[in-house]
Design goal:
This protein is α/β, with parallel strands linked by helices and about 675 residues long. The chain has 29 helices and 15 strands. The strands form 3 sheets. A 7-stranded mixed β-sheet has the order 7-6-8-9-10-14-15, sandwiched between helices. It has a 5-stranded parallel β-sheet with strand order 2-1-3-4-5, sandwiched between helices. Strands 11-12-13 form a 3-stranded antiparallel β-sheet, sandwiched between helices. Helix 5 (about 80-90) packs antiparallel against helix 6, helix 10 runs antiparallel to helix 11 (about 170-180) and helix 14 (about 220-235) runs antiparallel to helix 15 (about 240-250). The chain folds into 3 domains: about 40-270, Tetratricopeptide repeat domain (Serine Threonine Protein Phosphatase 5, Tetratricopeptide repeat, Alpha Horseshoe); about 275-390 and about 585-650, 3-Layer(aba) Sandwich (Rossmann fold), CATH 3.40.50.2300; about 395-465 and about 515-575, Rossmann fold. The protein is flat.
């Protein structure tokens, strides 16, 4: 727009000049030459503080500096004038002119003192010209330049802004954090905090928020990310989850920099005019063999429904209609009918067991009421379009693990050691298919009997004879060298000390550390209980199969694995649908609330029950007519719900698609690594 106005202005000048020539006939046109301003006359223009916010004065100075540089290009202080002109171009919004000036600055003024500053402003010009990629190239180079240390704060800030434009939240926050650390408390840091919160209000993809939360588990940035989660939830219609986040944040930030942003999001939610009560049926085994599991899930659902909060603190509320299935399919089916008869019931969460879940799914589909079952059997969702499944499955774990080791670790060759039971064989089949679908190599696959305790034969079959021969050859060589060393020692004792030329090797003959024998695969997947893994891992080490990555399922997630297997499972990787020691703030808060209310540790079932209840409620909030059909459609289209049990969506058949927790054994502890 500015270039267009400038062009119109120049065209006007040209028209005036032509008219003047026409009027004067044959007389020569008189050209008025403005005298070049002296350097001393530019004093105010060269002082940024002198112009302050006076835009008219800045534009006048642009004209004066341009005229000075046109007429005095070799002036000893031309570089200072050019540098200041570039600054004024940026301040007045002429970013193209600023770019060209700073791009040519080092060539036209090679002896200038402000080369580094000019490079910074080149990066800034590119940022304002919406060219963040080239801007990053310039600024990253400056970030590594010791001479640019005094400019670090601005370099970091614009690196962050470039990554915002590229929609790379983790990188943006990383550079904002470096800028934050370089900024002292005061107005500058307050402005930076406000800018970061503005960025979080944009609304980001759940994966970006999850990655950012792993980078900043606590402090200001962690809280800012939670504000971003709330903003994203509102954009996606996940109003109940947003409200939960905002209620917690309001209590923690009664009057500080967060307050205005929290209020803005609360106002945005209020505009939706959501109804206050959502009725949801709850089908769980509360008595009988599986009662203890059902009780734990019910406790989590009561937390989700804010049953323990004062009425004035509750906000939008859930009306829970609790039914005890007793673990009996016939009893549960009758309860589905009873719940469906109540027109206010938006949907049902539960049951847990597969046999009961299939029976309830059939009935819910017939009656047209949405149901989120908590069974691990994903095929229950195939009963019909009103049926969803939100239990932790082997497929979810396999997909998460293979994606991680191939995409993040760059590993591509795999082997499987699995038990001959239904769990092991299903895990093996899903793992092999996923690896091959992603272009990986499956080197070997070996099974063992359920009661097996000695795994030597299986490990030998797994690695193959060539690997074993090479290991044996190396071992034999080491033994021979040891015997030879012992023989030399006896000779030396009898003959005395040898001369230097005879006694030791020269510097070129020093021992070189031998490369380890590598197994034919990089990754070994063992889908079994942690107690069995504790027997297998030492056997692998005995056969020198230790330069590999061990992979497992959530059955490995026990501190007893570390106690039983120790160093043999160090750096092993496994997946789970919940991790109570996660650094993600809303997970940490849930665990604390659950422990405080029930004096117990929540597990994956509790997390899934909590999430399912809130997903169903959010779908109800999104449904404009509040019909069950609309609730079903909202569930079907849910994407990346940031729950306790991982970011959740539903596949076309209604089964859960999750980004699970990636865990590893670091030192002597299980830690979340992704």
């Amino acid at each position: 727009m500015r270039d267009r106005k400038k062009g119109m202005y120049l065209s006007g000048l040209l028209l005036i000049a032509l008219t003047s020539l026409w009027l004067t006939g044959c007389r020569g046109a008189r050209v008025i030459h403005h005298p070049s301003p002296s350097y001393e006359a530019l004093k105010d223009c060269l002082d940024p503080a002198a112009l302050s916010q006076d835009e008219q004065a800045k534009r006048r100075c642009v004209t004066l500096l341009e005229r000075f540089l046109d007429t005095e290009p070799d002036h000893p202080r031309a570089d200072d004038a050019a540098f200041r002109l570039g600054q004024l171009y940026l301040e007045t919004g002429d970013f193209t002119a600023a770019y060209h000036l700073f791009h040519d600055f080092s060539e036209e003024h090679p002896k200038a003192r402000k080369q580094t500053e000019a490079k910074l402003y080149l990066g800034v010009s590119l940022y304002f010209l919406d060219n963040p990629t080239d801007s990053l190239d310039v600024l990253h180079e400056l970030a590594e330049d010791p001479k640019a240390a005094p400019l670090a704060k601005e370099v970091y800030r614009y690196l962050a802004e470039d990554y915002v434009k590229l929609e790379n939240l983790p990188s943006a926050l990383t550079w904002y954090a470096r800028c934050y650390e370089s900024t002292e408390e005061g107005e500058d840091r307050d402005r930076l905090r406000a800018r970061i919160l503005e960025v979080m209000m944009i609304g980001w993809e759940p994966d970006a928020l999850q990655a950012a939360a792993r980078l900043f588990p606590e402090g200001f940035f962690s809280e800012a990310i939670q504000l971003g989660v709330a903003a994203t939830c509102i954009q996606r219609g996940q109003l109940r989850l947003a409200e939960d986040h905002l209620m917690r944040m309001s209590a923690q930030h009664p009057e500080d920099v967060f307050s205005a942003y929290i209020q803005a999001l609360e106002d945005k939610m209020a505009e939706a005019g959501q109804p206050r009560i959502c009725s949801i049926g709850c089908l769980l085994p509360l008595t009988g063999k599986y009662g203890r599991f059902g009780e734990g899930v019910l406790d989590a659902m009561l937390l989700a429904a804010r049953a323990f909060q004062a009425q004035e603190e509750k906000g939008a509320s859930i009306r829970l209609l609790i039914r005890d299935t007793q673990g009996d399919p016939e009893v549960a089916v009758r309860q589905v009918k009873d719940l469906a008869d109540d027109p206010n019931v938006a949907g049902i969460v539960g049951p847990l067991r597969a046999t009961v879940a299939f029976a309830c799914a059939d009935e819910a589909q017939k009656l047209g009421i949405p149901i989120i079952t908590l069974t691990q059997r994903e095929e229950v969702a195939r009963v019909g379009d009103y049926v969803f499944q939100n239990g932790l499955t082997i497929r979810q774990q396999v997909d998460t693990l293979v994606d991680y080791v191939m995409d993040e670790m760059g590993l591509s060759s795999f082997a499987v050691l699995y038990p001959k039971d239904s769990y092991g064989m299903l895990s093996k089949d899903l793992f092999e298919k996923k690896v091959l679908d992603m272009g990986g190599d499956l080197i070997s696959s070996v099974s063992y009997e359920e009661g097996e305790t000695d795994f030597q034969d299986e490990v030998r079959r797994l690695v193959g004879p060539e690997f074993l021969r090479e290991v044996a050859r190396r071992e034999k060589e080491r033994e021979q060298e040891k015997l030879l060393e012992e023989g030399r020692g006896d000779d030396a004792a009898g003959e005395g000390v040898q001369s230097g030329s005879e006694a030791g090797a020269g510097p070129d003959e020093e021992d070189v550390e031998e490369e380890p024998v590598l197994p034919p695969f990089q990754v070994l997947f063992i889908p079994d209980h942690f107690r069995k893994v504790a027997l297998i891992a030492p056997t692998l080490a005995y056969y020198d199969v230790d330069e590999i990555t061990l992979l497992g399922t959530n059955a490995w997630n026990s501190s007893q694995l570390v106690e039983l297997a120790g160093e043999y499972v160090r750096d092993a990787i496994f997946a789970d649908g919940f991790f109570s020691e996660s650094n993600i703030p809303y997970v940490r808060e849930f665990v604390e609330d659950y422990q405080r209310a029930f004096q117990a540790e929540p597990r994956v079932l509790e997390a899934q029950g909590y999430d399912s209840l809130l997903m169903l409620e959010d779908s109800f909030r999104q449904a404009s007519g509040k019909t069950r059909e609309e609730v079903r459609d909202a569930l079907a289209h849910m994407e990346g719900y940031p729950g306790l049990s991982g970011y959740t969506s539903f596949n076309e058949d209604g089964s859960a698609k999750k980004r699970l927790y990636i865990l590893s054994i670091v030192g002597n502890h299980i830690q979340q690594i992704d």
